[in-house]
Amino acid sequence: MSTLAASAPSARAASPxxxxxxxxxxxxxxxxxENLIKAGYQVTGYTLEREKLDRLAxxxxxxxxxxxxxxxxxxxVITMVPASPQVEAVAYGPEGVLENARPxxxxxxMSSITPQTSIDLxxxxxxxxxxxxxxxxxxxxxxxxEAVLSIMVGGEQADFETAQPIFxxxxxTVVRCGPHGSGQTVKAANQLIVAVNxxxxxxxxxxxxxxxxxxxxxxxxxxxxLAGSTVLARKRDNFLNRDFKxxxxxxLHHKDMGIVTDAARAVGAILPVGAVVAQLVAGLxxxxxxxxxxxxxxxxVQRLSGAQI
Length: 309
Hints:
Layout: H1 9-14, E1 20-23, H2 29-38, E2 43-46, H3 50-58, E3 62-63, H4 67-71, E4 76-79, H5 84-91, H6 97-100, E5 106-109, H7 115-126, E6 131-134, E7 137-138, H8 140-146, E8 149-154, H9 157-168, E9 171-178, H10 182-210, H11 215-223, H12 230-241, H13 250-267, H14 272-289, H15 297-304
Helix pairs in contact: 10-12, 10-13, 10-14, 10-15, 11-12, 13-14
């Protein structure tokens, strides 16, 4: 069940907002950091792309020249980068978060990474007096822009309560799932469900089109019944218009399917359908479609059904 803050808005307003360092201003990170600025937080950001730093500054944030410079005076550090290697790159080393953030800082990693990476990071941070939450999200670019993300959190209850106002500026469903690594485990399950759902939708689209049915009408009625899902609602126009501009790239979902496959093997969970979809995602990536939105799984089904793409 969701654990939402019970304190009154007036009580929150009386408390000074923590200063935030945001590391990683990609498709998700940019709108999320901007939503914190809109909510009244002071945000200093760092990323590798100059244009993303300019965008943050235009939104009212402050651009930093390095990870170290961004986190040095922050109360809260939030990282949102593609995968475990990038989290480790920004967290560790002489220029990383752990060496430059002040003791007592709360580090919230909102990337989608392996549960073990989150557990290891929390342990290393504890030695520096830094608290950690793993808090991956679901909802894609649209959810980030609209601040309606689902946020699954692992870590200590007290740290979760401290971070709750920040989470509520970014998402609609905020749940602490257990100790360190739990948020990443739930995110892996989320990505399994999303991939299988997209694959089923893609197969249905090809079936409907080859049968000569009005695709728009069919998706409308399917969306209103038991076949309806957030995936179908969010990706309906992608399927209809063959618009695969990335909201969440195949490359990243390929990474996530690797995470859930490895994690499931470690605990002895058998994922027969997930394993097939993981291979379909890998195949789409091998065909050069890794930079497209994950709704491009439709292209894989079209190819299998004889279309020349």
